[in-house]
Design a protein that fits this description.
By secondary structure, this protein is an alpha/beta fold. The chain has one domain (2-268): Tubulin/FtsZ, GTPase domain (Rossmann fold). Helices cover 43% and strands 16% of the residues. The chain is built from eleven helices and nine strands. It has helices at 10-27, 41-45, 71-78, 101-105, 108-125, 143-158, 181-195, 204-214, 222-241, 250-257, 286-293; strands at 2-9, 51-53, 59-61, 63-67, 90-92, 129-138, 163-170, 198-203, 265-267. Strands 5-4-1-6-7-8-9 form a seven-stranded parallel sheet, sandwiched between helices. Strand 2 and strand 3 form a beta hairpin. It starts with a strand and ends in a 17-residue tail after the last helix. The relative contact order is 0.13. This is Tubulin beta chain. Residues 47-244 form the Tubulin/FtsZ GTPase domain. Keywords: Cytoplasm, Cytoskeleton, GTP-binding, Magnesium, Metal-binding, Microtubule, Nucleotide-binding. Its cofactor is Mg(2+).
Length: 310
Protein backbone atom coordinates (compact mmCIF):
# COMPACT_ATOMS: atom_id res chain seq x y z
CA UNK A 1 0.00 0.00 0.00
CA UNK A 2 1.19 3.49 -0.76
CA UNK A 3 0.76 5.30 2.55
CA UNK A 4 0.63 9.02 3.25
CA UNK A 5 1.57 10.81 6.47
CA UNK A 6 -0.67 13.79 7.15
CA UNK A 7 0.59 16.74 9.22
CA UNK A 8 -1.46 19.75 10.24
CA UNK A 9 0.06 22.86 11.84
CA UNK A 10 -1.21 26.05 13.43
CA UNK A 11 -4.79 27.14 14.07
CA UNK A 12 -5.89 27.23 10.44
CA UNK A 13 -4.21 23.94 9.54
CA UNK A 14 -5.71 22.11 12.50
CA UNK A 15 -9.22 23.35 11.84
CA UNK A 16 -9.09 22.51 8.13
CA UNK A 17 -7.35 19.21 8.90
CA UNK A 18 -9.96 18.21 11.48
CA UNK A 19 -12.71 18.88 8.95
CA UNK A 20 -10.78 16.92 6.29
CA UNK A 21 -10.60 13.86 8.57
CA UNK A 22 -14.33 14.14 9.32
CA UNK A 23 -15.08 14.08 5.58
CA UNK A 24 -12.79 11.20 4.64
CA UNK A 25 -13.71 9.12 7.69
CA UNK A 26 -17.30 9.52 6.56
CA UNK A 27 -16.41 8.56 2.96
CA UNK A 28 -14.69 5.40 4.16
CA UNK A 29 -17.56 4.48 6.49
CA UNK A 30 -15.65 5.07 9.72
CA UNK A 31 -17.51 6.43 12.75
CA UNK A 32 -16.06 8.80 15.43
CA UNK A 33 -14.80 5.85 17.47
CA UNK A 34 -12.77 4.47 14.55
CA UNK A 35 -15.07 1.51 13.84
CA UNK A 36 -15.97 0.61 10.26
CA UNK A 37 -19.68 0.75 9.40
CA UNK A 38 -19.46 0.98 5.62
CA UNK A 39 -21.31 -0.87 2.91
CA UNK A 40 -18.77 -1.29 0.11
CA UNK A 41 -15.48 -3.14 -0.35
CA UNK A 42 -14.09 -0.10 -2.17
CA UNK A 43 -14.10 1.82 1.12
CA UNK A 44 -11.60 -0.62 2.64
CA UNK A 45 -9.54 -1.44 -0.45
CA UNK A 46 -7.10 1.46 -0.07
CA UNK A 47 -7.97 2.59 3.43
CA UNK A 48 -4.32 2.13 4.46
CA UNK A 49 -3.36 5.23 2.49
CA UNK A 50 -4.63 7.41 5.35
CA UNK A 51 -5.48 5.07 8.24
CA UNK A 52 -3.58 2.59 10.39
CA UNK A 53 -5.46 -0.43 11.66
CA UNK A 54 -5.18 -0.75 15.44
CA UNK A 55 -6.25 -3.62 17.71
CA UNK A 56 -9.87 -4.73 17.51
CA UNK A 57 -10.27 -3.50 13.92
CA UNK A 58 -10.16 0.16 14.94
CA UNK A 59 -8.94 2.59 12.28
CA UNK A 60 -6.66 5.43 13.39
CA UNK A 61 -5.73 8.37 11.12
CA UNK A 62 -2.05 8.59 10.22
CA UNK A 63 -2.09 12.23 11.29
CA UNK A 64 0.31 14.42 13.24
CA UNK A 65 -1.16 17.55 14.85
CA UNK A 66 1.18 20.36 15.83
CA UNK A 67 0.73 23.86 17.21
CA UNK A 68 2.59 26.30 19.42
CA UNK A 69 -0.40 26.80 21.71
CA UNK A 70 -2.81 24.23 23.13
CA UNK A 71 -6.09 26.04 22.30
CA UNK A 72 -6.93 24.73 18.82
CA UNK A 73 -5.79 21.21 19.68
CA UNK A 74 -8.17 21.15 22.63
CA UNK A 75 -11.07 22.12 20.40
CA UNK A 76 -10.08 19.43 17.85
CA UNK A 77 -9.91 16.90 20.68
CA UNK A 78 -13.32 17.99 21.94
CA UNK A 79 -14.77 18.00 18.39
CA UNK A 80 -16.91 15.25 16.84
CA UNK A 81 -13.96 13.14 15.62
CA UNK A 82 -11.49 14.11 18.38
CA UNK A 83 -11.31 10.59 19.83
CA UNK A 84 -10.24 9.21 16.45
CA UNK A 85 -6.67 10.60 16.66
CA UNK A 86 -3.84 8.96 18.54
CA UNK A 87 -3.21 10.97 21.75
CA UNK A 88 0.60 10.73 21.28
CA UNK A 89 0.31 12.50 17.94
CA UNK A 90 -0.76 15.82 19.46
CA UNK A 91 2.42 17.90 19.76
CA UNK A 92 2.02 21.40 21.16
CA UNK A 93 3.88 24.18 22.94
CA UNK A 94 2.47 26.72 25.38
CA UNK A 95 3.76 30.06 24.14
CA UNK A 96 2.09 30.59 20.75
CA UNK A 97 3.80 32.23 17.78
CA UNK A 98 1.77 35.46 17.83
CA UNK A 99 1.46 35.54 14.01
CA UNK A 100 5.22 35.96 13.87
CA UNK A 101 6.94 33.86 11.17
CA UNK A 102 10.37 34.06 12.82
CA UNK A 103 8.95 32.72 16.09
CA UNK A 104 7.56 29.70 14.27
CA UNK A 105 10.65 29.13 12.15
CA UNK A 106 13.59 30.07 14.36
CA UNK A 107 12.76 30.35 18.08
CA UNK A 108 9.64 28.72 19.56
CA UNK A 109 9.08 26.42 16.57
CA UNK A 110 12.70 25.26 16.44
CA UNK A 111 12.40 24.09 20.06
CA UNK A 112 9.31 22.00 19.35
CA UNK A 113 10.27 20.69 15.90
CA UNK A 114 12.27 17.69 17.18
CA UNK A 115 9.33 16.21 19.04
CA UNK A 116 7.16 16.72 15.92
CA UNK A 117 9.79 14.97 13.78
CA UNK A 118 9.86 12.06 16.24
CA UNK A 119 6.13 11.52 15.79
CA UNK A 120 6.42 11.91 11.99
CA UNK A 121 9.29 9.40 11.97
CA UNK A 122 7.27 6.96 14.06
CA UNK A 123 4.34 7.17 11.64
CA UNK A 124 6.63 6.91 8.58
CA UNK A 125 8.37 3.83 9.99
CA UNK A 126 5.02 2.12 10.49
CA UNK A 127 4.33 2.32 6.73
CA UNK A 128 4.97 -0.50 4.25
CA UNK A 129 5.71 1.78 1.34
CA UNK A 130 5.49 5.47 2.20
CA UNK A 131 4.64 7.61 -0.83
CA UNK A 132 4.86 11.02 0.80
CA UNK A 133 3.65 13.65 3.22
CA UNK A 134 0.84 16.15 3.15
CA UNK A 135 0.77 19.30 5.25
CA UNK A 136 -2.23 21.51 6.04
CA UNK A 137 -1.31 25.02 7.07
CA UNK A 138 -1.87 28.71 6.43
CA UNK A 139 0.82 31.03 5.11
CA UNK A 140 -0.41 34.13 6.92
CA UNK A 141 0.09 33.05 10.53
CA UNK A 142 3.14 32.23 12.64
CA UNK A 143 2.96 28.52 13.40
CA UNK A 144 1.48 27.19 10.16
CA UNK A 145 3.74 29.37 8.03
CA UNK A 146 6.96 29.49 10.05
CA UNK A 147 6.96 26.12 11.73
CA UNK A 148 5.19 24.44 8.80
CA UNK A 149 7.96 25.44 6.40
CA UNK A 150 10.60 24.44 8.96
CA UNK A 151 9.01 21.00 9.16
CA UNK A 152 8.95 20.71 5.37
CA UNK A 153 12.67 21.44 5.11
CA UNK A 154 13.51 18.97 7.91
CA UNK A 155 11.35 16.24 6.35
CA UNK A 156 12.94 17.00 2.97
CA UNK A 157 16.37 16.40 4.53
CA UNK A 158 15.34 13.07 5.99
CA UNK A 159 13.13 11.74 3.15
CA UNK A 160 14.54 13.39 -0.01
CA UNK A 161 12.89 10.92 -2.40
CA UNK A 162 9.34 11.17 -0.98
CA UNK A 163 6.72 13.55 -2.36
CA UNK A 164 5.80 16.55 -0.22
CA UNK A 165 2.36 18.03 -0.90
CA UNK A 166 0.85 20.98 0.93
CA UNK A 167 -2.61 22.47 1.29
CA UNK A 168 -1.75 26.10 1.92
CA UNK A 169 -4.25 28.81 2.81
CA UNK A 170 -2.77 31.99 1.37
CA UNK A 171 -3.59 35.55 2.46
CA UNK A 172 -6.13 37.08 0.10
CA UNK A 173 -6.15 40.60 -1.35
CA UNK A 174 -9.28 41.85 0.45
CA UNK A 175 -9.95 39.50 3.38
CA UNK A 176 -7.26 39.85 6.03
CA UNK A 177 -6.94 38.84 9.67
CA UNK A 178 -3.61 40.38 10.59
CA UNK A 179 -1.35 43.13 9.33
CA UNK A 180 1.72 40.92 8.90
CA UNK A 181 0.14 38.32 6.57
CA UNK A 182 2.07 39.48 3.46
CA UNK A 183 5.43 39.19 5.25
CA UNK A 184 4.68 35.71 6.59
CA UNK A 185 3.48 34.59 3.17
CA UNK A 186 6.53 35.89 1.28
CA UNK A 187 8.86 34.17 3.74
CA UNK A 188 6.88 30.92 3.45
CA UNK A 189 6.64 30.92 -0.34
CA UNK A 190 10.40 31.14 -0.54
CA UNK A 191 10.54 27.84 1.38
CA UNK A 192 7.68 26.17 -0.51
CA UNK A 193 9.25 26.91 -3.91
CA UNK A 194 12.35 24.98 -2.86
CA UNK A 195 11.03 22.20 -0.65
CA UNK A 196 7.49 21.25 -1.63
CA UNK A 197 6.56 19.13 -4.67
CA UNK A 198 2.95 20.18 -5.05
CA UNK A 199 1.06 22.95 -3.27
CA UNK A 200 -2.70 23.34 -3.49
CA UNK A 201 -3.49 26.97 -2.76
CA UNK A 202 -6.72 28.10 -1.14
CA UNK A 203 -7.74 31.54 -0.03
CA UNK A 204 -10.48 32.92 2.18
CA UNK A 205 -11.63 35.64 -0.20
CA UNK A 206 -12.39 33.16 -2.98
CA UNK A 207 -14.10 30.85 -0.49
CA UNK A 208 -16.26 33.71 0.83
CA UNK A 209 -17.14 34.59 -2.78
CA UNK A 210 -18.18 31.00 -3.50
CA UNK A 211 -20.32 31.02 -0.35
CA UNK A 212 -21.98 34.33 -1.31
CA UNK A 213 -22.37 33.95 -5.07
CA UNK A 214 -22.72 30.27 -5.72
CA UNK A 215 -24.04 28.76 -2.50
CA UNK A 216 -26.12 31.88 -1.69
CA UNK A 217 -25.19 31.92 1.99
CA UNK A 218 -25.86 35.35 3.52
CA UNK A 219 -23.44 35.12 6.47
CA UNK A 220 -20.79 32.46 5.78
CA UNK A 221 -18.90 31.27 8.87
CA UNK A 222 -15.43 29.76 9.02
CA UNK A 223 -17.26 26.44 9.40
CA UNK A 224 -18.79 26.90 5.93
CA UNK A 225 -15.39 27.85 4.48
CA UNK A 226 -13.73 24.83 6.07
CA UNK A 227 -16.48 22.62 4.71
CA UNK A 228 -15.69 23.85 1.17
CA UNK A 229 -11.97 23.31 1.71
CA UNK A 230 -12.51 19.80 3.02
CA UNK A 231 -14.70 18.96 0.02
CA UNK A 232 -11.92 20.15 -2.31
CA UNK A 233 -9.24 18.25 -0.36
CA UNK A 234 -11.37 15.14 -0.40
CA UNK A 235 -11.72 15.53 -4.18
CA UNK A 236 -7.99 16.02 -4.72
CA UNK A 237 -7.12 12.96 -2.61
CA UNK A 238 -10.02 10.85 -3.91
CA UNK A 239 -7.83 9.21 -6.57
CA UNK A 240 -5.34 8.17 -3.86
CA UNK A 241 -8.01 6.68 -1.58
CA UNK A 242 -10.10 4.69 -4.03
CA UNK A 243 -8.99 2.27 -6.74
CA UNK A 244 -8.57 3.82 -10.18
CA UNK A 245 -6.17 4.34 -13.07
CA UNK A 246 -5.70 8.11 -13.24
CA UNK A 247 -3.50 10.06 -10.79
CA UNK A 248 -3.43 7.07 -8.46
CA UNK A 249 -0.45 8.33 -6.48
CA UNK A 250 1.17 11.66 -5.63
CA UNK A 251 3.99 11.27 -8.12
CA UNK A 252 1.55 10.74 -10.99
CA UNK A 253 -0.42 13.81 -9.97
CA UNK A 254 2.84 15.77 -10.06
CA UNK A 255 3.76 14.36 -13.48
CA UNK A 256 0.42 15.51 -14.88
CA UNK A 257 0.36 18.94 -13.27
CA UNK A 258 3.89 20.30 -12.85
CA UNK A 259 5.51 21.81 -15.98
CA UNK A 260 8.71 22.97 -14.24
CA UNK A 261 9.86 21.79 -10.80
CA UNK A 262 9.51 25.21 -9.20
CA UNK A 263 6.10 25.91 -10.72
CA UNK A 264 4.11 23.56 -8.52
CA UNK A 265 1.41 25.84 -7.14
CA UNK A 266 -2.08 24.71 -8.11
CA UNK A 267 -5.40 26.41 -7.78
CA UNK A 268 -8.29 24.11 -7.00
CA UNK A 269 -11.57 24.23 -8.90
CA UNK A 270 -14.56 22.36 -7.56
CA UNK A 271 -17.78 21.21 -9.22
CA UNK A 272 -20.70 20.80 -8.85
CA UNK A 273 -21.44 23.73 -6.55
CA UNK A 274 -25.05 24.92 -6.44
CA UNK A 275 -27.19 26.61 -3.84
CA UNK A 276 -29.54 24.40 -1.90
CA UNK A 277 -32.73 25.65 -3.60
CA UNK A 278 -31.57 25.33 -7.21
CA UNK A 279 -30.09 21.82 -7.13
CA UNK A 280 -33.08 20.12 -8.74
CA UNK A 281 -33.13 22.57 -11.67
CA UNK A 282 -29.59 21.74 -12.86
CA UNK A 283 -28.54 18.79 -14.99
CA UNK A 284 -25.07 17.54 -14.11
CA UNK A 285 -23.81 16.72 -17.59
CA UNK A 286 -20.14 16.39 -18.49
CA UNK A 287 -19.99 19.74 -20.40
CA UNK A 288 -21.76 21.49 -17.52
CA UNK A 289 -19.35 20.09 -14.91
CA UNK A 290 -16.30 20.86 -17.06
CA UNK A 291 -17.51 24.40 -17.62
CA UNK A 292 -17.98 24.85 -13.86
CA UNK A 293 -14.59 23.31 -13.09
CA UNK A 294 -12.72 25.91 -15.12
CA UNK A 295 -14.94 28.84 -14.18
CA UNK A 296 -13.14 31.54 -12.19
CA UNK A 297 -16.11 31.65 -9.80
CA UNK A 298 -15.45 28.07 -8.72
CA UNK A 299 -11.73 28.53 -8.09
CA UNK A 300 -10.69 28.40 -4.47
CA UNK A 301 -8.08 31.05 -5.11
CA UNK A 302 -8.84 34.70 -5.83
CA UNK A 303 -7.04 34.80 -9.17
CA UNK A 304 -8.77 34.74 -12.53
CA UNK A 305 -7.22 31.95 -14.64
CA UNK A 306 -8.31 33.74 -17.83
CA UNK A 307 -5.78 36.51 -17.25
CA UNK A 308 -2.87 34.11 -17.20
CA UNK A 309 -1.18 36.04 -14.40
CA UNK A 310 -1.37 35.65 -10.66
Amino acid sequence: MRELVHVQGGQCGNQIGAKFWEVIADEHGIDPTGTYHGDSDLQLERINVYFNEATGGRYVPRAVLMDLEPGTMDSVRAGPFGQLFRPDNFVFGQTGAGNNWAKGHYTEGAELIDSVLDVVRKEAEGCDCLQGFQLCHSLGGGTGAGMGTLLISKVREEYPDRIMETFSVIPSPKVSDTVVEPYNAVLSFHQLVENSDESFLLDNEALYDICFRTLKLTTPTYGDLNHLVSAAMSGVTCCLRFPGQLNCDLRKIAVNLVPFPRLHFFMTGFAPLTSRGSQQYRALTVPELTQQMFDAKNMMCAADPRHGRY
